[in-house]
Specification:
Chain lengths: ~600, ~400
């Protein structure tokens, strides 16, 4: 029997980026907030200790900071004809665990989506006709870029983002991304110092008539004090960002931006190593009354609250909705139901690997988001009229790390082990770079999330089942992008070049990207979205579902910036609308 | 009740209470508690305000601060104002029980009775907490409180504050705050074998595993070279361009100085810059070729430059500078060695909330390695101080291990 705890105004599941943002904003509004976090407390000095953080074996290979499948596993299959099996290890994507969540171990890319991407269905239908996107299940997000601009701005200034604006209030600015939506002001910090490979790439791209720019990085190019008064250190270009917590306070994470202020507040509390089992609804199913959670000693508690915020990783939010009966599960055979709908990923795999002789790329001088890139082939920047796909990719060349175990590029034909391999890795280490394409992932009817009928977790709850394969549209996009990469690669004059693109059959074993989106999508209509434009559940009005689960589709860009912006957007809606008049903010 | 109805109710009540607590005007009595840093000892880390329980490690043994909330059974709810005044200013609680001078009554004796009345008025209003504390955990013979009568006879000369002849009002206010309620000497003034102040006030002293640095007009060991505004910034925020408050000083900044008025902080600065420096021969820097310096330089390059910089300048509000850092220039390297071994966290204040931390390196470096690193930073970039021995590092390591 769960022990009933004293009431709180707000109960948050998960203390990563969105949980920290919502807690900060709602405690500022005077509410009493508790965050219930499954993983441990994490702090820079004790957990990302500079003395042992650069331990590649422990953190990058053995994935010390990530969610372990013993705690929560998932099953996967490529389509409904297959029987899903549990992933025995997280490797295609790596969900975070513990305070800070995935915000601890990201690279730091802090992008905005383009204005047209919030209205993709309307935009593409208008430009190319409905037939062009008939095989896709695209929807508008129910929100516009202009509505979200201030929230993007807030997240970038909390994070201390290094970059160069390409569009300031409608004025195109030389050196930035000319295709981006208008920004109300410049980035908080100038771009990071570009490494040699990125400089070569930018020069070649410019000569080809493209528009390279430094990618937006929440790695500090200079010492920074953020909008909450929290200071961050200048990046040392050590290259231990992705899969690591930053030991130098140089990468934006909840720990380095919000928690120092939040943790001091008397109206905030975090309970770590406590796992939410279920959101409990009232008998009419229209509001939630509490969450049930279990602590590290196995004791069950019921925590009542007026507002329940699902701030876990997107996949966990969707599972929690399904486990709690919030909204209607999506059924791919009928296309009905919303929870689990429009699960998307990221179409990686398009790359041109370049090999040289006599270069010194110094890949160890690196930072997570240290890249030069271009959007000439992203989104709908280029004309898809004569092409057989929609969507695109950001094309980039950067130096995110030169770590000794994982970063061992070798030219094709090199043996996988032995003396010849050793010789090749030694020769190639300083002589290899790559131009990559991070591609969009568009929804189709058969890609979705639901509860697995067979496999259960340690508490006896069904695991989440992922049914996903790369849609043909996205594969055609990847193929097209690889031809563009080859052009740029060739202009960079390598001795040897190897070009690849994505292929059918999503494989959950090799690492691809931790950009899982959708499943609890936002929209203007309750039949094609699980939450409204304020990320409020259409069905249970005091539950808000934060994170990339709200994305109707994933674009050719990292999702964190949009996740952060949507969190500020939802927080503002709760403060300015919901608290004044609790209930559905948008009539269903 | 419908959740939204409850939400409405809570928004109004919670909003007013949470915000009010953060921005409440400070009462005169509360301000006396700030000046006296009462919470520094009487509020345990993570504990309820004034409920006691903080352990003070003294050379004589362990003393635990008592509960001074108005709880009748476990606090001071049964006291009268005169009981309170006698305890604060004379070190005697009701029934004639003598307090140990860990309670700085020799300094508090200077506080005028009117201010004690204000403080008493405030203390009566703090939330009652039922929390029984066994304060006296000293070993024999120090656990016999009557011994304090002899100590007082030898060392306790209660006196009202005496103004300095020909000194400014600021200087006098500063002198009063530093030597009276602020009881800075409790840490910063060297002690006799019996734990009484020695004559060389504020010239630095070892306690609780730290070396409280000299805060006289000395240069560069003291604050003689600091601008008055730098002293004010340090006390208000925990930071200035020369260093950061950590260890016991972090608690002082948190509970006391960060809440003082700028006028009082300026007065403290004026006074400290006029306190006579300790008599000490100027140190000469070790040669860069010294084997300890060579070893230290190598270790520093590989482990410390990421934050503190190759030039030892650090980064404002993040990583304290090592060049010119007074903590490194004290006669004792105890604090520097401790920070390398155990790590340290900066204080978090409204003006500087970050509270960055230095991680622990005890697991990574041998005593000899710590000794050479600390020797190196004490003797680089214009710094000069005596080298550190492996043996002294070993002693501190043992103390830290036993304390944890």
């Amino acid at each position: 029997m769960a022990q009933l705890l004293p009431h709180k105004d707000v109960v948050i599941m998960g203390l990563g980026w969105t949980g920290a943002i919502l807690a900060q904003e709602l405690t500022d509004a005077g509410l009493n907030v508790v965050a219930i976090e499954r993983g441990p407390w994490r702090d820079t000095a004790s957990d990302f200790n500079i003395g042992y953080m650069p331990d590649e074996l422990r953190f990058a290979v053995r994935k010390d900071l990530f969610l372990q499948p013993a705690l929560e596993a998932m099953t996967m299959r490529n389509d409904v004809s297959q029987t899903a099996l549990p992933m025995r290890d997280y490797s295609s994507f790596l969900p975070g665990s513990g305070v800070g969540g995935a915000g601890v171990h990201w690279n730091g890319f802090n992008w905005r989506f383009f204005p047209n991407e919030f209205e993709t269905k309307t935009h593409l239908t208008k430009r190319y006709g409905a037939k062009k996107i008939a095989e896709l299940q695209l929807e508008d997000w129910g929100i516009t870029y202009d509505e979200l601009e201030q929230s993007y701005d807030r997240f970038e200034y909390v994070c201390g983002t290094s970059g160069k604006a390409g569009n300031l209030k409608g004025q195109i600015v030389e050196g930035g991304n000319p295709f981006e939506g208008p920004r109300s002001r410049e980035y908080p910090l100038p771009p990071l110092k570009m490494p040699y490979a990125s400089t070569m790439f930018a020069q070649a791209a410019k000569e080809l008539g493209f528009h390279p720019f430094p990618l937006p990085a929440s790695n500090m190019s200079k010492p920074y004090v953020n909008s909450l008064g929290v200071a961050m250190g200048e990046c040392t270009y050590c290259g231990y960002c992705e899969r690591f917590g930053c030991a130098n306070y140089s990468k934006a994470a909840p720990q380095t931006t919000i928690l120092p202020v939040l943790m001091k507040k008397s109206n905030f509390e975090v309970r770590t190593e406590c796992e939410v089992l279920k959101v409990n609804l009232r008998p009419d199913g229209k509001t939630a009354k509490s969450v049930t959670y279990i602590d590290a000693a196995g004791r069950e508690f019921e925590q009542p609250g007026d507002i329940i915020l699902l701030c876990g990783y997107g996949l966990m939010n969707v599972r929690m909705m399904l486990l709690s009966g919030i909204g209607h599960p999506y059924d791919p055979s009928t296309g009905k139901g919303q929870v689990g709908r429009n699960y998307c990923y990221q179409t990686q795999g398009s790359a041109a690997r370049l090999f040289y002789e006599g270069k010194h790329f110094n890949p160890f001088v690196a930072s997570g988001a240290l890249s030069s890139g271009l959007d000439d082939f992203n989104s709908d920047v280029f004309d898809h009229g004569p092409l057989d796909f929609v969507g695109g990719a950001n094309v980039s060349c950067g130096t995110s790390n030169g770590r000794p175990i994982g970063n061992r590029p070798t030219p094709p034909g090199t043996p996988r082990w032995g003396g010849a391999w050793k010789k090749a890795t030694a020769e190639t280490y300083q002589n290899a770079t790559a131009v990559g394409a991070q591609g969009s992932s568009y929804p189709v009817r058969g890609n979705y999330l639901d509860l697995d009928p067979t496999y259960k977790d340690r508490h006896g709850r069904p695991l989440l089942r992922i049914t996903f394969d790369f849609p043909d549209n996205d594969l055609r996009m990847s193929q097209y992008l690889s031809t563009q990469l080859a052009k740029i690669g060739k202009a960079m004059n390598p001795k040897q070049m190897v070009v690849s693109h994505a292929a059918k059959g999503w494989n959950s074993v090799p690492y691809q990207t931790t950009h899982n989106t959708g499943g609890a999508t936002m929209g203007a209509k309750p039949d094609t979205s699980a939450v409204n434009k304020f990320l409020q559940s259409w069905d249970v009005s005091n539950v808000f579902v934060l994170g990339a689960s709200a994305f109707q589709q994933n674009e050719g860009r990292n999702p964190t910036g949009t996740v952060g912006a949507l969190a500020y957007w939802a927080a503002q809606a709760i403060r300015e609308r919901y608290l004044k008049r609790p209930g559905a903010l948008v009539p269903a | 009740m419908r959740p939204w109805a409850l939400a409405l109710l809570l928004v109004t009540t919670a909003a007013t209470s949470a915000r009010a607590a953060d921005n409440a005007p400070v009462s005169p009595g509360r301000y006396q508690a700030v000046l006296g840093d009462c919470e520094g000892c009487h509020t345990a880390p993570g504990g309820k305000p004034f409920a006691g329980g903080t352990v003070l490690q003294t050379p004589f043994g362990k003393i635990v601060s008592p509960n001074i909330t108005p709880d009748h059974d476990t606090g001071i709810g049964g006291w009268s104002e005169s009981d309170f005044r006698r305890a604060v200013k004379e070190g005697q609680s009701p029934g004639g029980k003598r307090l140990y001078p860990a309670m700085p009554y020799p300094a508090y004796a200077m506080i005028p009775d009117a201010d004690i009345t204000a403080l008493w008025t405030y203390i009566k209003t703090v939330a009652r907490v039922r929390h029984a504390v066994e304060s006296n955990q000293l070993p024999f013979p120090f656990n016999i409180r009557t011994g304090m009568a002899v100590w007082n006879w030898l060392n306790f000369k209660p006196a009202a504050f005496a103004s300095g002849a020909g000194k400014s009002a600021d200087w006098n206010r500063g002198a009063y705050l530093v030597t009276g309620p602020g009881h800075c000497g409790a840490c910063h003034t060297p002690k006799t074998l019996l734990g009484a102040d020695r004559a060389a006030a504020l010239t630095g002293a070892s306690l609780q595993g730290w070396f409280a640095p000299e805060i006289t007009s000395a240069q560069p060991r003291g604050v003689g070279g600091w601008r008055a505004t730098e002293i004010v910034t340090y006390l208000k925020t925990g930071w200035n361009s020369r260093g950061v408050a950590t260890g016991p000083m972090a608690e002082v900044v948190e509970h006391s100085t960060s809440q003082m008025t700028d006028a009082d902080l300026s007065a403290i600065a004026v006074y400290l810059k006029d306190v006579p420096a300790a008599q000490a021969a100027p140190a000469t820097a070790l040669a860069a070729s010294d084997p300890a310096m060579v070893a230290g330089a190598k270790l520093f390059q590989n482990n410390c430059v990421g934050c503190h910089g190759a030039d030892g300048r650090g980064e404002h509000l993040m990583f304290p500078p090592l060049a010119g850092n007074a903590t490194l220039l004290q006669s004792s390297a105890e604090s520097a060695v401790r920070v390398v071994l155990a790590g340290a966290q900066a204080v978090s204040t409204k003006a500087a909330p970050t509270a960055p931390s230095m991680p622990s390196f005890a697991w990574k470096f041998s005593d000899a390695e710590v000794a050479s690193i600390v020797t190196y930073v004490r003797n680089s970039w214009g710094n000069a101080a005596a080298p550190v021995t492996s043996e002294s590092v070993g002693k501190i390591r043992t103390t830290l291990r036993e304390g944890s």
